[in-house]
Amino acid sequence: MKNKKLILILAAVIILVGIASTVYVRMSKTDFAQITVNGEAYTIEQLFGIAEARTIEADSGIALDDLMIQTGIEDPGGHEYTLIGADGYQKTVQWENMRNGLLTMERESVFSDLPKAFRVKDIVEIKVE
Amino acid sequence: MEKRKLFTGILVFGSLWGFSEIIIGSMLRDARLPAGAILTGVFAFGLMLMSRILFKTRGMQMGMGLVAGALRLFMPFSDCTICSGIAIMAEGVIFEVLWHTLSRGFEENESLINKSSLGIVMSYGVYVTGYMITQILTPVVASAGFHLKDLLPFIPQILSSGLLAAALGGVMSPLAFSLKSVDVTRVKNRLYYPAAIGISALCWWVVIAKTY
Question: Chain A to chain B, count of Cβ pairs less than 8 Å apart?
Fold first, then answer.
């Protein structure tokens, strides 16, 4: 009997948590008119104008390592890079991964040496740490 | 329950689960539907609960997770194959823990709301924990490494997407409980084994044929 009451309460809590997080996720979705790279805001077109092109299988875009160099990151090999999506999804990668990565016009990251889980969609920020 | 019959049950239900993760999962992703939540709510949780009700044997769902995870490892061109395989196996363990904790005192004539609530809690638990395990394992296996700061801001998204898995679990649970009157031990061997092995073989063949 005690167990059944607990299950009913847990189910109600789960539904409330699910609804609350859905509302939170929708409200906190970032506007992605620009991409912030190391604190500086750029449009995707601006980024495509400064970094060299790269293709990985069927995906093409700009090279992430060159993008970091062109945006003035000093000692790029000594940092970690966090790619943050509009929905809060983020992945931190190393310089070695950036050398095998690209940013597409659709603002998605693609890495030839990392699993698909590292494809961050609708990127709004690239943090250099 | 005859051990041979139980192992065959693990094989057939695990194969169906693995098949759904790979073949149906790929169709759902192509249709841009929330594949993870649908797969967990309908197939992973639904099949584990059905098998638990039919076979009434502890540990069976862990075995199913091993079979489904092994089948997933045959799919090398998807995300992080090892991580997905391990996450599926982990889902089997999570189901066992949740079932052991929550199903005590549950009876055949339980009300619909109780059966649905159990489904909501278990399906959500399996989905959210499985998702987090994948988020931790994938970077660990990849060269980038796991960073807790990557997982924490994404937790609201995981909790939110689990709502669909919970709702589907709430529907699947009463359906699975309706199988309570079916007695697997009474199914004739000459029908049970060929059917179970045939279904399992078909699942493996389709996955392997699609992959290679």
Answer: 112
